[in-house]
Write a structure and sequence with these properties.
Layout (H helix, E strand, L loop, with lengths): L7 H9 L5 H19 L2 E4 L1 H18 L3 H4 L6 E5 L26 H8 L3 E6 L33 H8 L5 E6 L5 H6 L3 E4 L19 E6 L2 H11 L29 E5 L9 H16 L3 E5 L7 H16 L17 H14 L5 H21 L5 E5 L15 H6 L5 H6 L3 E9 L2 E8 L5 H13 L11
Parallel strand pairs: 2-3, 2-4, 7-8, 7-9
Antiparallel strand pairs: 1-3, 4-6, 5-6, 5-10, 9-11, 10-11
Helix pairs in contact: 2-3, 8-15, 10-11, 10-12
The structure holds glutamine (GLN).
Length: about 475
């Protein structure tokens, strides 16, 4: 058995029963990274030495305290890959950009602190579209990441390396950020489970900001159980992030296995449109049928403002980006502004324009109003249904280079994803099919703070299907 192919749940069991050590587990992932990295380019920094040291330390703790140590440290010895947007103390953090190419943070992001406290071993920092700007992994200043299911295709972005490394066995889970799509799209394109939690559910402290009123912190895993487990650890109020929510964090794993009989599921007509890939449509509708067979009631619904979501997103997000990136002025941090890549420059220019006097009312303010309409659609829908099911992407993972010269086409890959960030609600990507050897993902979307319900539905679906068990042949 290859240790890198285990789920977190299986690995914890094996560690408790002394079938293998954390050093064995971490070594297995590091070997896999060494084998695959040239093809995938999933990492910006591999922390081989540090990871092995941490793993040894975990083994010592386990040997001296016995398996009950997992009650305090539920992820002891588990190898994880961290998106390069997360500050990691003493470990280079570049945000995928050459601007801060040699930055070594003096502190950890809150999520990193929480994961380390839970016993996680960090194997490295993953490649990403610079600053989180992108849907394909092609906007990284550190080169393109490839999809492990087909090296000629994109893995989805911007958490491209996090998805590619997990799907190929470089870690047992990975972290991402989702401002408009960036956990769910790579999860969908690499056959993984990915959560975009409610805005504010997880602290953003120490994570390099993209668009602050949209940014959410999420995780990628091989199955729903592992995802629920990680969110249990990372969610919660953080005094260092004023936007983090005070809502109690449920024990997400405890509801897994409960029946979904009587659940009402909405299927919005605006998300099954002409021009989308038929195979994607069929897979998602088939998944809805499966959920219906589990006892759910399916209803057609409408989210009429969806048509305006992309325009709204591409005004508000660049506006916030132009403000957030202004601190990289070549004086306080890193390189001169000329070093920004094309996409960052495009967004800085666009955002500066939409915020400037004379244009603010016409663009920013109107887009902010449209934001309320998009949110209202969802609020209205959730009066009638418990969850909404939609595809994660209108297409299968596309070819590298196919959309990189056409920003609008690239932006449209997020058409089913960014409305959820506009509304600030949670969504879980779950693998739901394959077409021509490429994965298809669907989203289970719910009202604010309904992560528990999303995991319950995703888990119920996963128990009667096995899409998430398929792995790439590499
Ligand atoms: N693809 C979207 C963008 O480029 C979303 C990115 C993200 O979620 N970080 O804005």
């Amino acid at each position: 058995m290859n240790l890198f192919s285990l789920t977190i749940q299986e690995a914890v069991k094996g560690l408790k029963e002394k079938q293998f050590s954390s050093v064995d587990l971490v070594t297995s992932c590091l070997e896999r990274i060494n084998q695959e990295e040239k093809k995938l380019n999933a990492f910006i920094t591999v922390a081989e030495e540090g990871a092995l040291k941490q793993a040894k330390n975990c083994d010592i703790q386990l040997a001296s305290s016995g398996p009950q140590i997992f009650e305090q440290k539920p992820l002891l010895g588990i190898p994880a890959a961290i998106k390069d947007l997360y500050n990691t103390k003493g470990l280079r953090t570049t945000a995928g950009s050459k601007i801060i190419n040699s930055y070594v943070p003096p502190y950890d992001a809150t999520v990193v602190t929480k994961l380390k406290t839970a016993g996680v071993v960090i194997v490295g920092k993953t490649n990403q579209d610079a600053w989180g700007h992108g849907s394909s992994g092609e906007n990284s200043d550190h080169g393109v990441t490839r999809n492990p299911y087909d090296f000629t295709r994109v893995p989805g972005g911007s958490s491209s390396g996090s998805a590619a490394s997990l799907a190929s066995g470089g870690c047992l889970f990975s972290t991402g950020t989702d401002t408009g799509s960036s956990v769910r799209l790579p999860a969908a394109y690499c056959n993984l489970v990915g959560i975009k939690p409610t805005y504010g559910r997880v602290s953003r402290y120490g994570i390099i900001a993209m668009a602050s009123s949209f940014d959410t912190i999420g995780h990628l895993t091989k199955n729903v159980y592992d995802n629920a487990k990680i969110l249990e650890i990372t969610a919660g109020k953080d005094d260092l992030d004023a936007t983090s929510a005070t809502e109690k964090v449920p024990k997400y794993t405890q509801v897994l296995g409960q029946s979904i009989k009587g659940l009402s599921v909405g299927v919005p007509k605006e998300y099954f449109v002409e021009g989308m890939d038929n195979k994607v449509k069929e897979s998602v509708l088939e998944a809805v049928k499966t959920i219906e067979k589990l006892g759910a009631k399916v209803k057609q619904i409408s989210l009429p403002s969806s048509a305006f979501a992309m325009s709204c997103y591409y005004i508000l997000v660049p506006s916030e980006i132009s403000s957030n990136l202004s601190r990289f002025d070549g004086i306080r941090f890193g390189q001169e502004r000329e070093t920004f890549g094309d996409e960052a420059k495009r967004r800085i220019i666009l955002g500066t324009y939409t915020l400037s006097a004379g244009y603010f009312d016409a663009y920013y303010l109107r887009a902010a109003k449209v934001r309320s309409l998009v949110k209202k659609d969802f609020d209205q829908a959730f009066k009638n249904v418990d969850v909404i099911i939609v595809p994660s992407s209108p297409s299968l993972p596309f070819k590298i280079g196919e959309k990189s010269d056409d920003p609008v086409q690239m932006y449209l890959s997020d058409i089913f994803l960014c409305p959820i960030n506009i509304a600030g609600i949670p969504s879980l990507n779950v693998p739901c099919g394959f077409a021509g050897g490429l994965p298809v993902g669907m989203q289970i979307v719910g009202p604010q703070f309904s992560e528990e319900l999303l995991f319950k539905v995703g888990y119920a679906y996963e128990q009667v299907t096995d899409w998430n068990k398929r792995t790439p042949k590499i």
